[in-house]
Amino acid sequence: MNFKKSTMKAILISFFCFACLLPYYASGQSALIKHYESKEALETDANKIINDFELFIKESGYTLSSVPKAKIQTEPSLIRLDRTNNTIIIPFWGDLSNEQIEIFKSWRGENAEEFFILMFNWFFIPHEMGHYINPIIHDLNPYQCELEANEVAIAFLKSKPENLDKLHFIKESLKVILEILPKIDFGSLTEAEYFNANYKNMGSNPNVYGYFQLKFILDILNNSRDINIKHYFEEASK
């Protein structure tokens, strides 16, 4: 990944911040993150997350008519909800292309695999379930759709105390990455307007799309307000 000289200062500062956090990462990282030797093990854990999410929805007073199954399959989009086949497509680190691996290394260096697993084999599974319960058509307002999917994911994950350390780890990681990513020129547009106007082409630029998704997550984690899952079911019924 090439950076303009003007971003070098921010990069150096972010790496200094990361160095300060390194003792925490070193002591807690291996205990927080599970490495997958097989796709079967990943599929089992992914389906458990989906089933736990269904239980979370039931405990919130709602019932899902059906529940998608995890399918381990690495695609350019990495993770997505396949409504047609009622599955969530989930990537496996060992199947990533060299180009995909380099993107994660540019974000997290030697911790690239751990970050990938935590996000794409854990966090983004309930994110996709957020899309499942609230099927806003992306073409109408993709910014709101992605924001709300992240809110649903965090509401679910926060409901289990054992997830709080992982969420804190994500929060600290995202602070570092967002300092490293190239700055986006929104021109006269707001972030939401820029995202919606460029959404269809954004997938070809992982740094730009990554900026939005990671900023969504960090902003929500920085906000202490409780997220009421009822809101998303009410939207889906409109």
Strand content: under 5%
By DSSP, the count of extended strands is: 3
Q: Percent range for helical residues?
A: 55-70%
Q: Which descriptor suits the 3D outline?
A: globular
**What is the number of independent domains?**
1
Largest sheet: 3 strands, mixed
Flag low-confidence runs.
1-28
Strand order of the largest sheet: 1-3-2
Q: Let me know the average pLDDT.
A: 86
The count of helical stretches stands at 9
Amino-to-carboxy terminus distance:
43 Å
How does this model look, in words?
It contains nine helices and three strands; from the N terminus they run H-H-E-E-E-H-H-H-H-H-H-H. The chain has 238 residues and is mainly alpha-helical. The chain has one domain (5-236). It has a three-stranded mixed β-sheet with strand order 1-3-2. Strand 2 and strand 3 form a beta hairpin. It starts with 7 loop residues before the first helix and ends with a helix. The model is unreliable at 1-28 (pLDDT under 50).
Element layout with pairings:
Elements (H helix, E strand, L loop, with lengths): L7 H25 L6 H21 L9 E4 L7 E3 L4 E4 L7 H11 L3 H22 L8 H17 L5 H17 L10 H12 L3 H17 L7 H7 L2
Parallel strand pairs: 1-3
Antiparallel strand pairs: 2-3
Q: Which labels suit this protein?
A:
238 residues, mainly alpha, 3-stranded mixed β-sheet, 3 strands, disordered N terminus
Question: How would you sum up this structure in a few lines?
Answer:
This protein is mostly helical and 238 residues long. It is 63% helix and 5% strand.
